[in-house]
Amino acid sequence: MKKVLLFLSAFVFFALAPEETNGALLGKTQALINRANKFGPYLGLVIPNLFEMNPLLQHPSFVPSELVIDFAGRRFRFGTIEKKPVILVMTGLGMLNAGVTTQLLLSLFEIEGVVHYGIAGNANPSLHIGDVTIPQFWSHSALWNWQRYGDGPSNELPLEENGDYTRDIGYIKFADYTTSNVTSCSSPFDNLLNNVWYQPEEVFPIDGVPEERQHAFWVPVDSHYFKISRLLESLELEGCVNSTTCLDTTPKVTRVQRGTSASIYLDNAAYRSFIYNKFNVSPVEMESAAVALVCHQQRVPFIVIRALSDLAGGGTAESNEAATFTALAADNSVKVVVEFIKILRSFPWLLPEGRS
């Protein structure tokens, strides 16, 4: 570990030249990456935004090195957490940013596993703002086949016969959410938007056949990481923003069955209720499924830790709770991440051989 710190501290901030940001790894940069990888593998921390990363940068457990590599619009920060070598990288908002950043991390560096964390909306009525969720499965719930008006559940979707689309996962019927009181005596509500059918992602695992697609909707986190995460459930979390603003319930860490992502900010009570009842999801947000899908295809173990900052439209009509509780949720997510890494470092025998 001392060698790692000495090596990392030997380098000053390193920014790539403009021509390198276009994708070419010049000799100096490649040599730096190669040498850094000799001191890996690293645990990759993939973080959506600065307000979620800053609490970790300021946490006493994080010891930064002077090595920072900028590449393709991303900044890779090196350091240790609880003496475990880590690389921190911010993705930016949404699925595309998260997927690109995660793939860059895994392609450039020796990564033993990925921890993705941040805040999320809460679709689960049994959970509360401030709680930190650790889902076992993740889905991308905004890959759709939008059915033409007049067709219904018994009608085959376009290209379904070719295996491009499916009706296996289910759909949302927009007519179920029509508010008009005008309807005929013989027919239910109708809506020209008709139905949207949820679709699995096409995936191409590194141990599969190139250009031969597989499909995935629910992507499991690493089973051993998830098993270890049970040790986090007794962790005490912060419940107050300040001396006058506190949560009504004591926040907790809880493992849940499912979370879902889409490049959509969800602040709608009707869709919140639908997606919970349809898929039994708890956190709803905008990046985790992309991280999950990339790690799944690259066969890199990962886990996602998301703190609940708002009720995704299920709260009061006046405002979204995220304006008040985002900072608290971000702090709680960081606290859980640091404790998770501490467990990885302190109890390596909890992992399979070769994963400590």
UniProtKB/TrEMBL annotation:
CDD domains: MTAN. It comes from the Eukaryota. Coiled coil: none annotated. One of its GO terms (biological process) is nucleoside metabolic process. Keywords: Signal. The gene is LOC113703844. GO terms for molecular function: catalytic activity. InterPro entries: Nucleoside_phosphorylase_d (IPR000845), Nucleoside_phosphorylase_sf (IPR035994). Residues 45-136, 246-342 form the Nucleoside phosphorylase domain. It holds the Pfam family PNP_UDP_1. This is Bark storage protein A. Residues 1-23 form the signal peptide. The keyword Transmembrane does not apply.
